[in-house]
Design a protein that fits this description.
nine-stranded mixed beta sheet, globular, nucleotide binding, signal
Length: 455
């Protein structure tokens, strides 16, 4: 894929604004808080962590500020032992089968931090077992899985918070959305979403499965495949732990990894501007390191998700476009008729940000984009606080499954576009790919016998 033309001087300068501008963006905003809730964070709820790998051990300590962690579940005993020592002083109940956790009447909440391909099955069964859930993103592997999750959530009334914690980033992402909602950019014209390139690997040989890992259960609903592992002096490569994101069998690659964060904020920005965020099509180009036939990889010993991409999302009204690419700064560049801002996990910059010094936003501007809910903490702590608040009040959390899936469907459509190498047309009203039977068939996938997801 040819590299795009470099940013022109003004844009390069814009993205590296003076330190003073970045500092101004980082000035804490005055939040509307629920004082009683903030003073008593412990809810009395008991929760279990299902999936005790990297994301699990990063997010569960935050959850422990609000609920009691009583059980851990993982198919790798090494994760269980490490997590029990790290999170629970060796006192947690340990499980290798999540169904035993869901059967406990004294577990109110589950945090699902498994690899992506297990999210849907465990979440659906958790909701039907009467559990509220905090589930890491991306919620699903397919579009049709999202339809099922949304239906079950409505049927059961369970509270599900998706782990897109950028929705609870008040000093950066929510402040950017407030700037847009206040009309400081005018009508949005273009959003550039930078999510970095995907993973690369050499050929990875078949290897012996570690004795502590139940590989068959780790694979779960996905096709049977041999365990692969390679380690050199610099790094390791595998189709298992951590590196599952680079295999279409288990994930959607970078598009459903960072894409699930930044495309999310992009579409919230369109909504904040009062414009139509219904996607209509995805087009563009991608680079894979393996050959594809009919949208399926034919080589099985290397990472197979898209490594490079330049994708364009068109929306129903045609007045704003989204460009998702690997080769620009990680973050979002919002460009409107009156100005532009760039926001990432490290900065919020642009002339409209500088102008806040002399013309601040209305006092409730950030609170409004946070749906008027209590704003306690920031990022992960705020996201968990919002989850607990929503459980106590039986309301939709800030990152609910319905708005999440509208965004994630764009990421899934982008992945199908990459795999088939052609434009994908989408009808938001029916939530269907139109005019392309082969692409439409990729809205779902078969499940391995014994691990089916019940509708």
């Amino acid at each position: 894929m040819p590299r795009p033309k470099p940013f022109n001087t003004s844009r390069r300068q814009f993205l590296s604004c003076a330190t003073a501008t970045t500092a101004a963006a980082m000035i804490p905003y005055t939040f509307t808080t629920n004082t009683a809730f903030a003073q008593s964070k412990k809810s009395g709820l008991r929760f279990a962590l299902i999936g005790v790998g990297g994301n699990g051990t990063r997010t569960a300590p935050v959850g422990k500020e609000f609920a009691d962690l009583v059980a851990l579940c993982d198919v790798d005993s090494r994760h269980l032992d490490r997590g029990n020592a790290m999170l629970c002083d060796g006192e947690a109940d340990l499980y290798s089968d999540y169904r035993e956790v869901l059967a406990r009447d004294d577990v109110d909440v589950v945090q699902i931090s498994t690899p992506d391909h297990w999210h849907t099955k465990i979440l659906i069964e958790a909701m039907r077992a009467g559990k509220d859930a905090y589930c890491e993103k991306p919620l699903t592997l397919t579009i049709d899985e999202g339809k099922l999750i949304r239906r079950v959530q409505k049927e059961t009334g369970r509270v599900v918070q998706v782990g897109t914690q950028q929705r609870s980033s008040f000093n950066l992402f929510n402040k950017a959305l407030a700037i847009i909602a206040d009309g400081r950019l005018g009508k949005l014209k273009k959003i550039t979403v930078g999510i970095d390139s995907g993973g690369w690997s050499p050929e990875i040989p078949v290897a012996e499965v570690p004795k502590e890992l139940d590989w068959d259960r780790w694979l779960g609903p996905t096709p049977t495949m041999e365990y692969r592992y390679l380690e050199d002096s610099k790094r390791r490569y595998t189709n298992g732990h951590t590196h599952f994101r680079w295999w279409y069998e288990h994930s959607g690659g970078k598009l459903t990894d960072w894409g699930a964060h930044h495309v999310d904020i992009a579409m919230l920005g369109i909504d904040a501007a009062g414009q139509n965020s219904d996607p209509a099509s995805v087009s563009g180009t991608a680079v894979h390191d393996v050959e594809f036939v009919d949208g399926m990889p034919v080589q099985h010993n290397r990472y197979n998700t898209a490594r490079q991409f330049d994708l364009n999302v068109a929306f129903a009204d045609g007045d704003v476009t989204m460009n998702i690419r690997h080769d620009v700064d990680n973050g979002l560049l919002f460009e409107g008729e009156r100005g532009r801002i760039f926001v990432s996990r490290g900065k919020l910059v642009g002339k409209p940000v500088e102008e806040l010094q002399s013309k601040p936003l209305p006092e409730d501007a950030v609170a409004k984009v946070y749906r008027g809910m209590p704003m306690i903490g920031n990022d992960r702590p705020a996201h968990w606080a919002n989850f607990i608040h929503s459980i106590e009040h039986r309301t939709l959390p800030i990152s609910d499954v319905h708005s999440h899936m509208k965004m994630l469907n764009v990421c899934h459509l982008a992945g199908i576009c990459c795999r088939l190498g052609r434009t994908i047309q989408w009808d938001q009203a029916t939530e269907m790919i139109v005019g392309d039977d082969q692409a439409a068939a990729m809205m779902s996938r078969p499940y391995r016998e014994g691990f089916e997801i019940e509708g």
